[in-house]
Design brief:
This protein has 16 helices and no strands. By secondary structure, it is mainly alpha-helical. The protein has one domain. This is Permease.
Length: about 350
């Protein structure tokens, strides 16, 4: 009887965790289609498989690039953006935010250290707003799903949003707002590891430790992208097959600010990471979603994703967190309007 009241054994918990993966969801979705609509099963498989095959070169290049950046320790270049005059810091933080190969748990200690050392909140906000939107793998995945014009537009929007947020915070700080933004912070454990080299080592293959990290990052990120993109393309196939095009067009189609604002507000609570969102947006655009609404949805969703919000919430006081979300959704709407005009 005592065993009935005990928590599940570690081995059982590990097995349950393995079941809670995108692979499991993919299998369940496909089994549901096979059971409920067997005539459409082959169409869904062909659509998802073809889309994944078309994106495969982008995935491979993205994984190689990210593994290279990690193995060389290129992240340390980002810290140099937070040196010098405040205006220069904002400009470089917005730019490097879209290039930094940080995972969400690495951003937290990095930003905490900068704030503790006195880095201005304006530059930190610029980095925070641009960082979730784009990085080298996301750029390539977006280009593969939505085309290079959209991917480049998103990259430009990421830097512009960082600049917008950074200079807005700079102006507000001058009025006395956001004094002492940092809350009490205890660094959490992080399984990502960190490269503590002072300068990048571009010829990483000359060091056994760096070669090992390259292999580890390649395998880890490759599997990560493969599972999430597989799920994304299966969901896109369902979207195209079962969601009426006129419904999408009615909600987020057409011209004007209202569909774009609606897409941004819908995108805020919708947790779609940057690898899942592009294929789904491709399906929505095929169904009638405007390009401006798609851009607003993607930007708002990235800014409000769980890892991005957790990184901000864990470090700063609620009023700074509210400013982060407000600037994010406003920037998403502006980016959508401008992208649709262009």
């Amino acid at each position: 009887m005592a065993e009935l009241t005990q928590s599940p054994r570690p081995g059982r918990r590990i097995r349950l965790q393995h079941l809670k993966t995108p692979w499991t969801l993919i299998v369940l979705i496909l089994l549901a289609v096979l059971a409920l609509d067997p005539g459409n099963f082959e169409t869904v498989i062909r659509f998802a498989g073809g889309a994944l095959a078309n994106t495969a070169p982008y995935i491979l290049f993205a994984v190689l690039l990210l593994a290279y950046l990690k193995a060389t320790g290129a992240e340390v270049l980002v810290a140099r953006a937070f040196e010098g005059r405040e205006t220069r810091m904002i400009l470089l933080a917005a730019l490097f935010g879209g290039l930094a190969p940080f995972c969400s748990c690495e951003v937290i200690p990095f930003i905490a250290g900068l704030l503790a050392l006195g880095a201005p909140l304006s530059a930190v906000m610029a980095f925070w707003l641009s960082s979730p939107l784009i990085d080298p793998p996301t750029l390539l995945i977006t280009a593969g799903a939505l085309g290079w014009p959209f991917a480049i537009g998103k990259a430009v929007a990421a830097v512009a949003l960082g600049l917008f947020g950074g200079f807005a915070i700079k102006a507000l700080v001058r009025t006395g707002a956001f004094a002492q933004p940092l809350r009490n912070y205890t660094p959490p454990g992080c399984g990502c590891g960190s490269n503590k080299a002072e300068t990048p080592v571009w010829k990483f293959w000359q060091t056994a430790e760096r070669r090992a990290r390259f292999r580890s990052e390649f395998a880890t990120n490759g599997l990560f992208l493969l599972k999430w993109l597989s799920l994304a393309y299966v969901l896109e196939a369902l979207l195209v097959s079962y969601v009426p095009a006129d419904l999408i067009a009615q909600v987020v189609g057409g011209e004007g600010v209202i569909p774009i604002a609606t897409a941004a507000l819908v995108g805020m609570p919708a947790y779609l990471n940057s690898y899942v969102a592009p294929p789904l947006l491709a399906g929505l655009m095929e169904q009638g979603m405007s390009t401006g609404a798609a851009m607003a949805f993607m930007i708002a969703g990235a800014v409000s994703s769980i890892p991005a919000m957790a990184a901000v919430w864990s470090l700063v006081k609620p009023r700074v967190f509210a400013a982060y979300l407000g600037l994010g959704v406003l920037g998403a709407i502006l980016a959508g309007v401008l992208f649709q005009m262009v």
